Amino acid sequence: MTVPTPGRPVRGSNTGRPLMAALDLFGRRWNLRIVWELRNGPVGFRALQERCDNMSSSVLRQRLTELVETRLVTQQPDAAYLLTDLGRGAYQALRPLDRWSAAWAAALEERRES
Q: 18-113 has which CATH code?
């Protein structure tokens, strides 16, 4: 399976518009979670695997390879993984969605209580 990149056909877009490529990349299981877990700094492979609910090592390796290839993550000489500037930008873009989802959850809880 090819890694979604702008300018190449991706799920939902034959033209590979950048937004559609990003949605395809982040729509792959675990990619958003990996970016989220790396938000506070470098994390080693095993620690990242634990933070991601002990996902299989083969899936984690595949997802990290995709994120490195798309320049969102880099691997340091000590083997820890770290967000690049692009990866930190992706995390920053997710923060409003995180705030919205908390408000959504609160609204649903409020509705259940009434």
A: 1.10.10.10
